[in-house]
């Protein structure tokens, strides 16, 4: 949980102090959670952290699970997020394939 918290915090470009302020906990508490010395944070703290870090429903559930807590999202929501991610990857792959074809045509076999 601690490593995941640290990665999400850094990705959100937040200091431990700023994250603690947003969540309403002492900065030392965030530090202990990241170090792993606070092994079982409460559900309300984990949910507040997830909200402050702007985690998606799927990421929030992984975050809860890493903290030793049950996920909140139903399977339908997770499935819909996965479907959306797959569509995004397919669009990107199609764009790359189309661009690659254009480059081959323009450069020709010579």
Order of helices and strands: HHHHHH
Q: Largest sheet at a glance?
A: none
Based on CA inertia axes, which overall geometry fits? elongated
Low-pLDDT segments: none
Q: Got a strand count?
A: 0
Give the distance, in angstroms, between the N- and C-terminal Cα atoms. Answer: 55 Å
What is the helix tally? 6
Main structural class: mainly alpha
Percentage of residues in DSSP E strands: under 5%
Helix percentage range: over 70%
The Rg value, from CA coordinates, equals 20 Å
What's the overall average pLDDT, rounded? 89
Summed up, what is this model?
With 110 residues, the protein is mainly α.
Describe the structure in your own words:
- With 110 residues, this protein is an all-alpha fold.
- Helices cover 73% and strands 0% of the residues.
- It has helices spanning 2-11, 16-23, 27-35, 43-52, 57-66, 75-107.
Question: Layout of helices and strands, plus pairs?
Answer:
Layout: H1 2-11, H2 16-23, H3 27-35, H4 43-52, H5 57-66, H6 75-107
Which descriptors would you attach to this protein?
110 residues, 6 helices, 0% strand
